Amino acid sequence: MDPKLTEVSQFFDRFKAAFVRKDFDTCTKLLSELKVKLTEFRSLPPLFEDTPNAVHELTLARDIYEHAVVLSVKDEDQDAFERDFFQLKPYYTDARNRLPPSPQEYPILGLNLLRLLVQNRIAEFHTELELLSSIALENPCIKHAVELEQSFMEGAYNRVLSARQTVPHETYVYFMDLLAKTVRDEIAGCSEKAYDYLSISDARQMLLFTSDQELLKYSEEEHPEWEIKNGFVYFQKAKETTPCKEIPSLQLINQTLSYARELERIV
């Protein structure tokens, strides 16, 4: 075996050993070194040179970047996830015909869809869906993300929250927790605008909590402006602290007329 390939394989074995014992700090350090060493392989993207060990090098690199994506989830680092996912993606697309299928491909593609949904990047979510094959769309990991997006768009928030109990892969739990917070924040914002106050029981049900304690903790951490007393949650204080923005009507009219005059000149 090529000495460089042997060295990278040995480094990766150390990385996996640290990953198993959940020493994620060591994993991060080793991953940085692995990425530098991978740059020496000309068979990898974007060059894709047909070297004697090309298939072995591509397979090893794909495995490394798959572990990098999962590590970013363990570290709860969404920026690292995005970087590592886009480094991994060419191995699923451009190198597809040169490598055997990876069992981690669909779980990771579904994880990326879930990330886009959590970040409310719906346009990119649908762009990624368009790139997937009909076989991929039938995979449970992909279907899970698609069904979540549909429930979210329909406002079926109870289905979104209950979906955490049926995640197709354990790495999905992190993003599902973030999505649950997004859902509750959305409901809370609507509740503030629709009601002056609610009973604790009604507020708990509306925000889809299972106990009053969860509601109280959420209020303390996320909405300290809410006033809770005598069995009720009062939103009026939140409304008073939110300044009303005046719409600059005259300015908008003048701009519109100006655009109309310019358009008339062009025509």
From TrEMBL:
Family the entry assigns: Belongs to the proteasome subunit S14 family.
Organism: Rhamnella rubrinervis
InterPro entries: 26S_Psome_Rpn12, CSN8_PSD8_EIF3K, PCI_dom
Gene3D superfamilies: 1.25.40.990
Keyword Cytoplasm carried by entry: no
GO cellular component: cytosol; nucleus; proteasome regulatory particle, lid subcomplex
Keywords: Proteasome
Protein name per its UniProtKB record: PCI domain-containing protein
Residue ranges of domain PCI in the record: 79-251
GO biological process, any: proteasome-mediated ubiquitin-dependent protein catabolic process
